[in-house]
Amino acid sequence: MTQLIYLTVLLPLAGFLINGIFGSRIKNEKIIGWLGSGTIGVSFLIVVGAFFETIALPTDQRQHIVTLFNWLSVGSLNVSIAYQVDQLSLTMALIVTGVGFIIHVYSIGYMHGDKGFWRFFAYLNLFIFAMMNLILADNFVLLFLGWEGVGLCSYLLIGFWYDRKFEKGTTGDAAKKAFIVNRIGDFGFLLGMFLIFLTFNSLNFNEVFTRANALNISTTVYSFIALFLFIGATGKSAQIPLFVWLPDAMAGPTPVSALIHAATMVTAGVYMVARCSIIFASAPAIMTVVAVIGLLTALFAATIGLVQNDIKKVLAYSTVSQLGYMFLAMGVGAFSAGIFHVMTHAFFKALLFLGAGSVIHGMHDEQNIQKYGGLKKYMPTTYKTFLVAAIAISGIPPLAGFFSKDEILWSAYANAGFIYWFIGVVTALLTAFYMFRLLNLTFEGKHRFDEHHVHPHESPKLMTIPLIVLAVLSVVGGFIGIPEIFSGEHGNNFHSWLAPIFSDSQIRLAQYGSHTHFEEILLMVISVVGAASSIYLARYIYLKNQKVAEHTASKFKGIYKILLNKYYVDEAYNKAIIQPIFRTSESLLWKITDVKLIDGLVNGTASLVELVSGKVRKIQTGVAQTYAVVMMLGIVAALFWIIFSL
Amino acid sequence: MENNLLITYLLFIPLAGALLLLLFPKGKESSIRVFGLIVSLAAFVLSLIVYFKFDPANAGFQFTQKFIWVEKLNVSYFVGIDGLSLVLVLLTTFLTPLTLLSSWKGIQKNVKEFTFFMLMLEVGMLGVFVSLDLFLFYIFWEAMLIPMYFIIGIWGGPKRIYASVKFFIYTMFGSLLMLVAIIWLAVYASGPLGVFSTNLLDLYQVGPTIAKQIQFWMFAAFAFSFAIKVPLFPLHTWLPDAHVEAPTAGSVILAGVLLKMGTYGLIRFCLPLFPQAAIAFAPYISVLAVIGIIYGALVAMVQKDMKKLVSYSSVSHLGFVVLGIFAMTQQSMQGAIIQMVNHGLSTGALFLLVGIVYERTHSREIADYGGIAKVVPLFSVAFMVASLSSIGLPGLNGFIGEFLILIGSFKSGVLNSWWFTAFAASGVIFAAVYMLWMYQRVVFGEYHATPKLEHLTDLNAREMIVLIPIFIFIVWIGIYPGTFLKLTDAVSASIIHQVTTASSSILLK
Questions:
Q1: SS3 (DSSP) at B1
Q2: Euclidean distance between CA atoms A44 and B62, whole angstroms
Q3: Alpha-carbon torsion (B217, B223, B229, B233), positive or negative
Q4: What pLDDT score was predicted for residue A646?
């Protein structure tokens, strides 16, 4: 199976081509949908096979490279279309194909009846194709192909309903914004790649990382490389300052939000940092930058999430916030904890989005949670699974989110210090609060919609079964990474699986401080109790005493308004960057420099000549053809003169 | 070896075709069209034969043919190709039949003259790429101006006279400087060689011996002429006018091949003939190239006319090519050469697509469009692929060129600074802005059947036949660039070697 890993790339590509070329003629949704899902399902099975093959091998033989062909070979630059199977890429591949398959199946139900059904599945398969390239690549350039490819699919899928309005503009605006903001990050990623090539004279992972481990290279160079790569990550994974595209990405169909903008693509930045852990570990200053940006993003996005009323917006900011946790993990050197959170987050966040999709589906495209209420009796399965996901993300044991989040918080405390832990916990409390605000406003209490026009209903089985599967994963998914203090001798399975990938960077990083088990348990208890209180508070406010919410909102009107408007970041970017660039380009560059200055000079020269030659005006017929002929004759005459004067 | 007729046949086919065309009676439009197409296809087939016979490992000129032409001046008819010429010859013979086919409906007036000029243009362009004698080169270089001038001037838009005169004067001005330089060079050669010479291979030996001070002037004269053609900022203002006024076929050839004559000239003449000057000038020209990348992109962003937008994007893309040339590393040079082809394909496709909707709606104003994905799905897909190719999406051709140029310039010993690459790379952001914004405004959004848009129909079979070959190469170069890169491997190495050995004081990585 390991040798067949390239099929996990080619099958989705085939799915894309078949549905993309023939989809409009197939017309049968079942064929299109199951073809699209089938390619991903088979890919998943191949990955599972490869996983079992790999885990049966001794630890030091778990890396395989499957080369297809030489791609780009110029001078010392030499990269192939080659796929690397190892612990890290297998973990990611399991998530992407596994969760991807579930979401594909869900989409058959969700997109039923859409006139772009075939196009949707074509794009979705193209996305998996790009994503698999991203995580399986054995070199930076192929990773970048996947990296840009997922960005393209994100663009196509955000703008999927291209004729619809979205907020102040259209879905096209949101799509374009996503692509361009990502490109800003890609600019950083490119520079990082160039500097890597200059420093290590290679762009293959194995060569680069081996040399990084062996060579003595200055911290400054490492810092620049790490910084550039991290800029790329902030774009793809929606961190400060480039997070602005993700909330707008919600313009796409909800399964897209679940697959691309929650479970898989947005974690690509985390994966990339983990992949390059040796480089980051060699740049301590940038590690701090990563941790701080992650932490601030987590907090910042969570505060915005508190007051949003669009169900998908809340989840979008929640995703930004959770991604912040993952970068916090990276920044404090807890690489495998970060990847662990990538996995658990994929389960519960995909579930939350699909649940939201089920609600939106049942509520005739209404997305405002203020217009929901009491939906649990209409949509029991959606409600129950949503509740599981909400508990999981809030970090209540023993659900998946608890283990991964707690490990990150513990590492933050142990490796970076109290304040990192503290802000992390505050964010966790906010998370629990906004999640249960959302849950209560949606499913509990009295309904606030117009019963005569809206008839909420549970979604079909094709949609609820994926919810149930994800709910199960959200419950048990954390068990593979039970911390050492609970599991005793076995240690943390997830850790020991990934450990070889990060062993070099762990050596390079300062060793973990020695903390007692007592501390770890104490901190754990604090965060769990905090989260539980938060949930209770949200329940109290939004179920029993909504006045409190209104009262608080009016009392802190200023803050509320700032949060509701997302700190005006979009507006600030628009005023400070976008508008000036457009104005300069339009007036200074185009209308002044090009038209007035340069053309003025050119045309001025022409008129000057005309002025001077006023006396010989008669031969100036104004017919350009004549000029051309005269010029040619002139050249010929000049040539003859030269020839015969020699 | 010195008398291989292959290249001469290549020039002869379109020339003879053009002359035979004159014998056709007026009014036989369709047979004229078919004949023109057959001739251009024959030239393409012959260029493929050249390709298959070509030995990529050999950096020297192949299929050379030489005979004395003007004995008194020691001027010879001397032609031959290396890898650099070959890719551009292939691009020319590939695009010409496609443009003829694309004009099937768009050109109704003076079909005979149009086809004649297109074929003559092909002769001129091919001649430029295969000439190994400067005198011969200059004749082709100038001769090719005339058909282009008429194509814009006769079949162009409302401001065609202004545009064609501007085009003519701009390029003529540069050419005259080059002529002076060629004459000076030929005279100078009579010193070391004992005989007046315009033979490029002789001059390659002689050029680097010219005193540095004079080399600078020679370089400047040549480079100025080529820079206008490229066009390099700030000599670019003829381009948007020429493009907007030119008929579709003219725009495609202009962007696809004509501009490449400038960058070809820089590689073929400026670098190896005046190596010390080239290295001394490299940072300055690269600054202009980088300004062009950003400037072209920013100005493209605010255009309201699709053709103007695409033509400003050319200024940006050609800036990449010039940067790649003057960074003088193996990667950047090969990147620059492949990027010439890429630009020909992607911008050619974009001009064809704009031309296709223009034929139906008679508007190129972006604001006149919106939501057309609904009525022209095939067009929308084609437009998307061409746009993505133009913005350098990995997996398509544009990425290969840009990536090689950037990674090569980053480690360039000649430029010796990150800043060139850092600023140039910002061009990838702006490219996404202007292309996707245009795409969004034209294709996405709500569709309204305004009087202009109600006649919009999707691509027909003929248009698909024109576009599909281009798209095949867009994907081919993106996924398996080796086919093309191997052609330019040896020649790039040899040109860089020529420059660096001649000015060994500067170390190159």
A1: coil
A2: 53
A3: negative
A4: 46
**Residue type at B2 in one-letter notation:** E
Which chain A residues are closer than 8 Å to B436 by Cβ? 155, 176, 179-180
Q: Among A292-296, A351-355, A564-568, which stretch is predicted with the lowest mean pLDDT?
A: A564-568
Judged by DSSP in three states, A218 sits in: coil
Structure token pair of residue B418: 């990150």
Look at residue B99 in the predicted model and tell me its pLDDT: 93
Question: CA–CA distance from B300 to each of A123, B229, B305, B367, B390 (Å)?
Answer: 29, 19, 10, 15, 13
For B248-264, what is each residue's pLDDT tens digit?
Answer: 999 999 999 999 999 99
**From the list A72, A585, A625, which residue is nearest B302 (CB)?**
A585
Task: Indicate the range of A135-139, A591-595, B76-80 predicted with least confidence.
Answer: A591-595
* Mutation choice for A interface testing from B419, B444, B471, B492 by most A CBs within 10 A: B444
d(CA A475, CA A480): 11
Q: Which two tokens stand for residue B486?
A: 């191997």
Are residues B85 and B130 in contact, defined by beta-carbon separation less than 8 angstroms? yes
Query: In this complex, do A581 and B411 lie within 8 Å of one another by their Cβ atoms?
Result: no
Between A75 and A542, the more confident residue is: A75
CA B32 to chain centre: 27
Determine how many CB atoms are found less than 10 A away from the CB of residue A61.
Answer: 8
Angle between helices A268-275 and A117-136 (to 10 degrees): 10
Burial of B448 (C-beta count, 10 Å sphere; 0-12/13-18/19+): exposed
Q: Is the peptide bond before A500 cis (omega within 30 degrees of 0)?
A: no
Task: Measure A477 CA to nearest chain B CA, in Å.
Answer: 35
- Measured from the Cβ of residue B278, the count of other Cβ atoms closer than 10 Å reads 26
- What is the spatial distance between Cα A158 and Cα A168, in angstroms, rounded to a whole number? 15
Quick: pLDDT tens for A18-33: 999 998 888 888 999 9
Between positions 397 and 416 of B, the ones with CB within 8 A of A are 399-400, 403-404, 406-407, 410-411
Query: Which residues of B are less than 8 Å from A186 in CB distance?
Result: 428-429
Q: Model's pTM, two decimal places?
A: 0.91
Nearest Cβ partner of A172 from B70, B237, B445?
Answer: B445
Element (H, E) at B324: helix B306-327
Q: Which residues pair with B367 in a beta bridge?
A: none
Q: Which two tokens stand for residue A188?
A: 């950083």
Over range B139-162, report the average pLDDT: 85
Report the complex ipTM: 0.92
